[in-house]
């Protein structure tokens, strides 16, 4: 009982009677009586509202509370009133979480730890990564485009046109046979810059958009935030990722389901996808939206770091499923607009009526509990405006009332 009294009295101490209306004040008294407290507790607490306190009133009301057995007012009412005034329950001393305790991690409040991506260790099997990638994205008869050679210009490496005349089935067969390395199947690559692969099937005649035979996937890539942050956004958006590849540098390459019937529909769906990503902080280069775009090939090295497959079949199963879900949860609010263009030519403000408080033509609301003095404050305000005097230390502009 002592512990219960201590807790409830502490909560009551955090509740201001002056901020309650008459019925809530009565409810506090009924709750205290129901929980076994004395009228003295209610009376001492009520004295804090000097403007409305009347000696002996608590005792008179207290006597009328006795015998209330139907729908009693309990201590939970006091807790709720305290919450409405900003009180929050303290954390459990033994570390256990309460029902309403927030769950957070340093740097945000998503309710869980930020996912971490770790580079594979010594047991990494590059061929297995690439086989899983090919099996996930392609049918066995699909022609796959890939690039292992590049040229250097002004210190920057650019991939060549590459190959596009071998099927996924053939590549998987050879990768399974040659365990010595990917270079034996795809050709030697420059380990300083890595290698690339196209994620949509081609017709075997070229590597341009017109050579794409099925508009299945799009590339989502951003280097505007850290790797772990990118991974968190991808998971939070539940993007329909078929394959997720670490680029070996500062970005992830998410191969996302688009499932379009033609090039026009592909562009439309990719624009929608990129817009959602942009609003979530993933700033994506729009050059990536081409269906014949190159992406980083898993299973190779890039300047001493691994380009590796993080996972497959992440998020929603299809673009249609994801689009229906994302449209059901997003707020549809317009994009924020910058004030930079109008900041130096803002509209002229109305003349002040009460300096620092109210301008002419604007509205002001004076609120407070019963008997708080609202009417007298308004009378004084009217006089101050009529005579051009101060009101509650604020200078008023003289005018008609």
Features:
single chain; elongated; 3 domains; 17% strand; 401 residues; four-stranded antiparallel β-sheet; alpha+beta; DNA primase, PRIM domain
Describe this structure in words.
This protein has 401 residues and is of the alpha+beta class. It folds into 3 domains: 2-84; 126-329, Alpha-Beta Complex (DNA primase, PRIM domain), CATH 3.90.920; 352-395, no CATH class. It is built from 12 helices and 15 strands. The protein has a 5-stranded antiparallel beta sheet with strand order 6-8-7-11-10. It has a 4-stranded antiparallel beta sheet with strand order 4-1-5-9. A hairpin with a 5-residue loop joins strand 7 and strand 8. Helix 2 crosses helix 5 (75-84) and helix 3 packs across helix 4 (57-65). The longest helix is centred in the C-terminal third of the chain and has 17 residues, at 263-279. The two termini are 59 Å apart.
Q: What percent of residues are in strands?
A: 15-25%
Oligomer: single chain
| DSSP summary: helix tally | 12
**CATH architecture type of the largest domain:** Alpha-Beta Complex
What is the CATH class of the largest domain? Alpha Beta
Q: Mind summarizing the main beta sheet?
A: 5 strands, antiparallel
Number of domains: 3
Task: Break the fold down into its secondary structure elements and pairings.
Blueprint: H1 2-13, H2 22-34, H3 39-46, H4 57-65, H5 75-84, H6 126-137, E1 143-147, E2 150-153, E3 156-159, E4 163-167, H7 168-177, H8 183-186, E5 196-198, E6 215-221, H9 227-236, E7 241-246, E8 252-260, H10 263-279, E9 294-296, E10 300-302, E11 305-314, H11 319-329, E12 352-354, E13 358-359, H12 374-387, E14 390-391, E15 394-395
């Amino acid at each position: 009982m002592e512990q219960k009294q201590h807790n409830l009295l502490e909560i009551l101490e955090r509740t201001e009677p002056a901020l309650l209306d008459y019925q809530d004040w009565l409810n506090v008294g009924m709750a205290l009586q129901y929980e076994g407290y004395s009228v003295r507790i209610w009376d001492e607490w009520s004295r804090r509202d000097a403007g409305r306190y009347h000696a002996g009133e608590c005792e008179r009301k207290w006597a009328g509370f006795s015998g209330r057995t139907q729908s009693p007012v309990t201590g939970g009412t006091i807790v709720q009133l305290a919450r409405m005034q900003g009180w929050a329950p303290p954390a459990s001393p033994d570390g256990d979480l309460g029902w309403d305790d927030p769950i957070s991690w340093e740097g945000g409040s998503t309710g869980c730890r930020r996912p971490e991506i770790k580079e594979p260790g010594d047991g990494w099997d590059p061929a297995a990564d690439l086989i899983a990638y090919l099996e996930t994205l392609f049918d066995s008869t699909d022609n796959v485009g890939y690039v292992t050679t590049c040229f250097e210009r002004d210190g920057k490496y650019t991939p060549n046109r590459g190959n596009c005349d071998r099927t996924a089935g053939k590549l998987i067969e050879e990768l399974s046979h040659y365990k010595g390395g990917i270079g034996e199947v795809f050709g030697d690559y420059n380990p300083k810059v890595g290698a690339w692969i196209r994620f949509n099937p081609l017709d075997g005649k070229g590597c341009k958009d017109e050579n794409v035979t099925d508009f299945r996937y799009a590339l989502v890539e951003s280097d505007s935030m850290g790797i772990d942050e990118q991974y968190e956004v991808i998971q939070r958006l539940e993007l329909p990722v078929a394959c997720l590849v670490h680029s070996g540098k500062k970005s992830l390459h998410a191969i996302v389901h688009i499932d379009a019937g033609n090039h026009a529909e592909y562009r439309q769906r990719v624009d929608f996808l990129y817009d959602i990503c942009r609003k979530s902080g993933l700033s994506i280069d729009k050059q990536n939206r081409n269906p014949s775009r190159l992406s980083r090939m898993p299973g190779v090295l890039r300047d001493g770091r691994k380009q590796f497959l993080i996972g497959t079949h992440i998020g929603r199963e299809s673009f249609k499923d994801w689009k229906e879900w994302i449209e059901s949860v997003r707020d549809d609010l317009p994009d924020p607009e910058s004030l930079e263009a109008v900041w130096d030519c803002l509209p002229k403000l109305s003349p002040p009526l009460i300096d620092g408080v109210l301008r002419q033509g604007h509205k002001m609301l004076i609120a407070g509990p019963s008997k708080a003095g609202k009417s007298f404050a308004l009378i004084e305000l009217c006089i101050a405006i009529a005579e051009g005097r101060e009101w509650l230390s604020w200078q008023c502009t003289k005018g008609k009332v």
